[in-house]
Design goal:
By secondary structure, the chain is mainly alpha-helical. 54% of the residues lie in helices and 5% in strands. The chain is built from 13 helices and three strands, in the order βββααααααααααααα. The chain has helices at 82-86, 92-103, 113-134, 165-170, 179-200, 210-237, 242-271, 276-296, 308-320, 323-333, 335-340, 344-363, 380-409; strands at residues 9-12, 21-30, 36-43. The chain has a three-stranded antiparallel beta sheet, with helices on one face. A hairpin with an 8-residue loop joins β1 and β2 (21-30). The chain is elongated. 38% of the residues are buried. The chain binds zinc ion. Zn(2+) binds at residues 235, 381, 385. It is found in: Membrane. Belongs to the ADIPOR family. Residues 46-108 are annotated as: Disordered.
Amino acid sequence: MARSVPSGWIIFTHSRPLVTGHFKLDEGETSGAEGPAFVLRHRNLNSHTTDPMSPRETPNTGPSTSPLSTSECSSHNANVPEDRRENKDDDGEEDKEEEDDSCRDEGFMGMTPLLQAHHAMEKVEEFVHKVWEGRWRVIPHDVLPDWLKDNDFLLHGHRPPMPSFRACFRSIFRIHTETGNIWTHLLGCLFFLCLGLMYMFRPNISFVAPVQEKVVIGVFFLGAILCLSFSWLFHTVYCHSEGVSKVFSKLDYSGIAFLIMGSFVPWLYYSFYCSPQPCFIYLIVVCILGLAAITVSQCDFFATPQYRGVRAGVFVGLGLSGVVPTLHFVISEGLIRATTMGQMGWLLLMATLYITGACLYAARIPERFFPGKCDIWFHSHQLFHILVVAGAFVHFHGVSNLQEFRYTAGGGCTEDGAL
Ligand SMILES: [Zn+2]
């Protein structure tokens, strides 16, 4: 089902501060369950490169007719109650009703041309807002505004800019390049939330020092939940606007640092249970490094595609700072004790999962070898997300084994061991 839509350039400069830019509405095809779809093409006024209106992407729709000159019924719906105007439901019938309502505005012809233009502009703005709310369809990478261009191996399936949080959150249930990124960390976040709550409500009898141990393991859960929730939120609202994308990308990167710092806390606590001094020193060092990573991730350049490798390097480096306490632990406990009671195998598996994820992310594998084939599923960022959740779970498993060992051994310490 297609619908007649006026095409032409629309310039928004007033009313809603979010709606600023050049847009063109082209009649589109039906995009499945959402009903009629229209291509919403956005040209960022600050963009200097690709013109999204390139001939390849935009067939000529004939003489341009400004929506402002839809003479049959271009009146502003000044008499429509406020709640009606706010209702951005997908129902196509409503559009017709509103058009009818707007026709009732008898005072329109008596207005000055400037006032007519102003009212018509608001009407169009409202219509465009509805398009953002639910009737968008995915667009190719090369028509994205610069601030949405991240991975040029993902050729199609991108969300257009949608300066509406409601539209962004609705897009969680649509299929596009970010669907997998959102759901992997949304489900991971819920999983760790449930696991964390279950752990916190374990009977105190299962711990040597219940409050202390629950706080220490709680820090790990807090880091994991913050990381995963910042991540799925970032991927959800990434297409809102340049400003929102920047703020949430910084939160996303900070979340990775929180996960790494939080992972160190219970591991150092149990591994150096009998050597509190080195445990404390390592904790301070990892906190300083983590805060340094958070600080650098607040710089705008850090989120740009050119710094993808640097980003991966910063967080892998932060994780690899654990090599020093690991060597300390292995030397003081011996390899056998470190791998059996010290759960070194799980720690190595966790490191392997995180580093593999970071390498896939930095090198953009597999989409690098199959451009356009991994647009929706199995692209590097999704694999990286899955490996982060798996790595965090493996770490939790190792830490809970360490906790069980401590419970079995009791609170006492041997003369020269760290464990
Ligand atoms: Zn991500």
